[in-house]
Design brief:
alpha/beta, 3-stranded antiparallel β-sheet, 13 helices
Length: 369
């Protein structure tokens, strides 16, 4: 008898649940050769903007492109400093440096693993021009405190919402607080395409138009280039797929939140495991369900042998990467550095049923017993 396995993520199962809708949308794009631009992209942009409660959405080629283009459009002073959390994917920081700016890493809150505002305040300098709150794992940053800090110090705010589609702080969607918000539609995201894709959102028409120009060779009309730009566009196929998936996002988010509740209730008596701490006044959308344990690597191997897939997000805090040795910030974020050795992501997604969760819990408890 085959051993039952619990997948970390199951995109095939998700596709099969909406196969007819997806296939029809893809065939419609193919039949009209509507591959770049066109009505499907415009329609999805409008729908996603409406979903978030913002005025404008600009579809681009990836979440990383969204970060780079969004930061470029803000015209931050060359060589100025941008505050970035130490616990996130490198795309957040590389978008800063690739715009000719300096990254200053900020430590994280030990409970939420999000940017620690007090540490950010301590690293403010007369060169600081912006801050990037990352709504990591699907949990919103305290945007009241962060926006007050930004306003008091004339900082631009770039919200990194790559893992937080539909997450809310005080009933307001992430991505709608700062100067701009960015989203990734990488396939594994809560709202994922079938390839790369991303979006920049804001409620400033001039800023949105500038982002669109940068992403499309510095033009709005076909040959009306008023500046140099780049080529980063959300294609028609991905837009059509995302439009279908957007209709199911709230349902999938509810399933993720239900799974998270089941994990918390079942694992609350395991003293060796620190469960996610959810802030007040937020809707956490659980892109990832991340626990913390000093026996992370042993547990990961044990669960793999039990047929339970897990992940590590992220095994090395950004200031400790070789890519950033030149910044000499390796000792600047001790909480992020120590946490990186203990974080483990359990299976999470709309594919999980109650029996899957029970299997994960049973295996995890067996390890600690």
């Amino acid at each position: 008898m085959a051993v039952k396995k619990v997948k970390f993520l199951d995109l095939v199962r998700q596709y099969e649940s909406i196969k007819d809708e997806i296939d029809a949308a893809i065939n419609d794009v193919l039949s009209q050769s509507a591959f770049v631009g066109g009505t499907r992209v415009k329609s999805f942009e409008a729908s996603f903007a409406n979903y978030l409660g913002v005025d404008f959405c600009v579809g681009v080629g990836s979440g990383t492109d969204a970060l780079e283009i969004g930061i470029e459009a803000l015209d931050l002073p060359e060589g100025s400093e941008v505050l970035v959390p130490a616990n996130t994917f490198i795309a957040t920081s590389e978008a800063v440096t690739r715009n000719g700016l300096k990254v200053v890493f900020c430590d994280i809150d030990p409970d939420t693993h999000l940017i620690a505002l007090e540490d950010a305040k301590s690293k403010l300098s007369n060169l600081t021009s912006a801050i990037i709150p990352v709504h990591l794992y699907g949990q919103p940053v305290d945007m009241d405190g962060l926006m007050e800090f930004a306003r008091d110090n004339q900082l631009k705010v770039v919200e990194d919402c790559a893992q937080a589609h539909g997450a809310k702080f005080r009933n307001k969607s992430v991505g709608s607080f700062g100067d701009i918000g960015i989203f990734s539609f990488y396939p594994g995201k809560n709202l994922g395409a079938y390839g790369d894709g991303g979006a920049i959102v804001c409620s400033d028409e001039e800023l949105a138009e500038k982002c669109r120009r940068i992403a499309n060779h510095g033009r709005i009309a076909k040959y009306d280039h008023i500046m140099e730009g780049r080529c980063s566009r959300l294609d028609g196929l991905q837009a059509a797929i995302l439009a279908i998936k957007l209709n199911h996002l709230n349902e999938w988010t509810t399933r993720r939140r239900t799974t998270a509740t089941q994990y918390v209730e079942a694992l609350s008596d395991v003293s060796e495991v620190k469960l996610p701490v959810v802030s007040e006044d937020v809707i956490h959308v659980y892109h990832l369900f991340v626990i913390r344990t000093s026996r992370r690597d042993e547990l990961k191997d044990f669960l793999a042998n039990e047929g339970v897939q897990t992940g590590v997000h992220y095994p090395i805090a950004l200031p400790n990467l070789r890519a950033y040795e030149y910044l000499n910030q390796a000792d600047s974020c001790p909480i992020a550095t120590s946490s990186a050795k203990e974080l483990l992501s359990l299976p999470m997604g709309d594919h999980l049923g109650e029996e899957d969760v029970k299997m994960v819990v049973k295996s995890l408890k067996r390890f600690f017993e």
